[in-house]
Amino acid sequence: MMRNGLALPADMGRAGRSGPSLRQEWLIFAAAAVVLGVMFAYMVYFRHSVITDREKDRLVHAASVAGIMIGDQLDKIRLTLDSIRASLGPNLTPDDASVLFVKDRLDILGSAMTSVRTLAVLDAQGNVIASNQALLMGQSFAHREYFRLPAANPLPDTLYVSPPFETTSGVWLIAVSKAIVRADGALEGVVMASLDPRDFRLTLDAVRNSPKTWAALAHGGGTMFVWEPAGRDLRGMNLAQPGTFFEQHLNGGRPASFYQGTVRANGERSMIALKTVQPKGLHMNTSLVIGVGSSLESFYTDWTAYAVGHLAVYVLVISFGGVALHLMQRARRASSLEAEWAEAQLLELNAELATFFEITPNLLGIVDMGGGCRKLNPAWEREMGYAVDEFRETSFFDFFHPDDMDGLNAAIEELRRVGKAQSLVARFRNRDGQYRHLEWSLAARHETLFVAALDVTDRVAEETKLQMMAYHDRLTGLPNRVLFFDRLRQVLAVARRGGKKAAVMFIDLDGFKDVNDTRGHDAGDKVLQSVADRLVRLVRKADTVARLGGDEFVVLLHEVGSADDAANVARKVLESVGAEIPLGHTGAARVGASIGISIWPDNGASVDDVLMAADMAMYQSKQKGKNRFTMALEGCLGHDGVCFGDAYQVGIDVIDAQHLELADTVSKLCKALREGQERPAVLGLFEELRSCTERHFATEHGLMVRHGFPGRADHDERHRSLLRELRDMGPDLSKEGALFLTDKLRHWLLEHILEQDKALGAYLKGLGDTGPASG
Questions:
Q1: Three-state SS sequence of 118-171
Q2: Do 459 and 436 form a contact (C-beta atoms < 8 A)?
Q3: What is the rounded CA–CA span in Å between residue 133 and residue 685?
Q4: Label partner for 35 (CA 20 to 30 A): which of 160, 205, 414, 465?
């Protein structure tokens, strides 16, 4: 090499250049490759974790929901068995009066309870002495587990659950039974119910959200009972085998478990959530176990493609970079004249490694702490619709939803304070103006913020949907009772602080039952949806319209000036609800509304008082002829339950006396609930109401038979329906439910008097017989 006329050694010329050695270049390349690989692996792992956690949460939630539903079913059956057992006398003989009475009840209960196939009472030897299945009378079932279990250890509070068994007709059943115990502790008999698997299939099918999801119910001893979807006949399979998830779950002693692996029942690799069903209040001798699972192949398909794509990109980039570096170094070693060319190749290599930033599908960016955008990858344009240059003239933080800025600022402040990466979910506005939920990962170096984001809008929407289902009525979308109570307390608290008034308006539709019975449930649903929509349009955004169930609605008016303001709203409600409701090709329908209005604090200082006043006023509207409104001052105030007036006298002494007894029992029950009395006392009153009801219906049945009442069949069918409705009110026996249980019981009792007992009374008076039924 010649420089200023002097020849310099070639290696001296190379030594004069600054830069890394060949080995250092490979170390740098290896480090870059490791960093790139870690980033790729993190993204693939993160996507896998998101998919796995989401599916796990869904399965665990589904198993929990199914457990609650099946627990409720068992509780209702337990109450039925307790009721049958309480009706029996001390001696179980086929001709005993209490056994004869129970025989009639079993027919009614058997037809009312779709989940029960057979109800029976067995004596101490296992012989059937009462049943809703006539073919079973006199037969011995002492060999069945549902008799052997209580016979071996007769405990009156225990609900004995037999293993699934196959009947002679090829049907698989589970039976539950309770012991009838003498005073000396000996077995007097057994009352049992065999459970039809169809209702359990409906419950399990309801929690499946895809064809790849399955659900199963097994006995605590390991015997399979129900598998959904149907197609695999796994009934009777023994799951209590060493190493099975079922065995691990029971041995673990946990109420809920989650596993991943091969399921013995279907041989598939699956995720499975197991839930033990054994509510404490039922005193079950053994548990039931629910399993909800999903095949791993069904939800890892997209992730596999995602991982393979990233691996291919990584291999391509590393291979290209390694080849380029190798060629560059070989060329540089071959001739110092090609040194500049080799340096250019190194720069190109670094550029190729940096392409990861450009080609990754995740949203990546470099932002300064003030919101200035330095660099964004092209995924922002693909996913959010922005060209990269659109962030140059404005702060990056301006695109966040205003309500999420506090969370973002807190995360940045924590990042500055502790230096550890922060994560949060915040909404970001896309190109069309809509906000997307993004899951952000934030890291910082000095005053530079490195961000990575993943679109989780669909996941947030699913979570919001589950929250919506918990607090809103599914048919109309209106707030349900739980949400209404919360808003009522908030409104009254605000009104109390500001010295304002608030109004509660109870609305019960008139004529809805006729539409539902004559036009079908689809027409009834359309009417309820139309009424809900009209009510929402009538009130202000600050007001609340809720559906309490059936054809009952309630409107909460925030900050009313006086009772006249509420009355004006009620007039608009009557006009709007009374307008014709189109039903599509089936024509149209009309309904009316009976409205009761109470004003806080004029009609009561507490939530209970205001609600009760509105409810009583609504029923006064019913009594006055319907399709009108009544202010609480005109209602029947100061009454804990049923306001029983002269309008409900049928003119038959025995019937009217029993009606008054029922009304008094209802009032006692509602008062006990409102005062928060102990549950045994409440259950005692509920049992008293059930007994009074059955005795009253038996009296009316005797009168109708004796005098040939032409409407007896319909009247008896209505009695059976009312008994089912009374049974369904059992889960609402809580202080919170008392506010609406009163209204339920009014409909249950008073409307039946007006609609059917009045006609029976008129018929009997026409015959000149007002005495009690004989026999």
A1: EEEEEECCCEEEEECCHHHCCCECCCCHHHHHHHHCCCCCCEEECCCEECCCCC
A2: no
A3: 31
A4: 414
Q: Which run of H or of E encompasses 363?
A: strand 363-368
Q: By three-state DSSP, how is residue 266 classified?
A: coil
Give the pLDDT confidence score for residue 48 in this predicted structure.
77
The strand ranges marked E within 224-360 are 224-228, 256-262, 269-277, 288-295
Averaged pLDDT score across all residues of the chain: 82
Q: Which two tokens stand for residue 323?
A: 């080849």
CA distance 279 to 176: 14
Asked if 244 and 229 touch (Cβ cutoff 8 Å), the reply is: no
Q: Hey, what are 148's tokens?
A: 């052997």
Report the alpha-carbon distance of residue 378 to residue 577 in Å, rounded: 55
| Residue 692 structure tokens | 């009074």
Amino acid at residue number 437: H
User: What does the block give as tokens for 334?
Assistant: 């071959």
3-state secondary structure of 422: strand
> Residue 96: is its pLDDT beyond 60?
yes
As a whole number of angstroms, the distance between CA 110 and CA 118 comes to 7
**CA-to-CA separations, 672 to 204, 237, 668, 723, in angstroms, rounded:** 36, 48, 6, 21
What is the rounded distance in angstroms from the CA atom of residue 602 to the CA atom of residue 638? Answer: 14
- DSSP, collapsed to helix, strand or coil, labels residue 59 as helix
Q: What are the tokens at 525?
A: 């649903």
For 559, 583, 591, 696, 769, the CA distances from 588, given in Å and listed in that order, are 36, 5, 10, 39, 44
Query: How far is 124 from 188, CA to CA, in rounded Å?
Result: 5
- With CA atoms as reference, report the closest residue to 548 among 569, 532, 564, 524: 532
Residue 643 confidence class, pLDDT cut points 50, 70, 90: low
C-alpha span between 113 and 132 (Å, rounded): 12
Residue 736, pLDDT above cutoff 70: no
> Half-sphere exposure of residue 710, counting CA atoms within 13 Å on the CB side?
3
Measure the CA angle with vertex 465, ends 460 and 471; round to 5°: 130
Which DSSP string do the residues of 512-548 spell out, in sequence order?
HHHHHHHH-HHHHHHHHHHHHHHHHHHS-TTSEEEEE
pLDDT tens figures, 288-308: 999 998 887 766 777 777 788
Q: How far is CA 481 from CA 150, 407, 598, 666, in A?
A: 41, 32, 18, 22
Q: Which helix (H) or strand (E) holds 556?
A: strand 552-560
pLDDT of residue 355: 64
Distance CA 610, CA 210 (A): 45
Write b or e for each residue in 178-192: b if 16 or more Cβ atoms lie within 10 A of its Cβ, otherwise e.
bbbbeeeeebbbbbb
Sheet harboring 288-295: ordered strands across?
Answer: 224-228, 213-219, 288-295, 269-277, 256-262
Place of tokens 């008392």: 738
| Contacts of 440 by beta carbon, 8 Å cutoff, 6+ apart | 408, 411, 423, 424, 425, 426, 451, 452, 453
> What number of other Cβ atoms are within 10 A of residue 322's Cβ?
15
DSSP letter at 88 equals S
Q: How many CB atoms lie within 10 A of CB 351?
A: 11
Structure tokens given for 364: 């990546």
The answer to whether the beta carbons of residues 549 and 737 sit under 8 Å apart is no
| CB distance 455 to 435 below 8 Å | no
Nearest to 579 by CA among 569, 592, 596, 561: 592
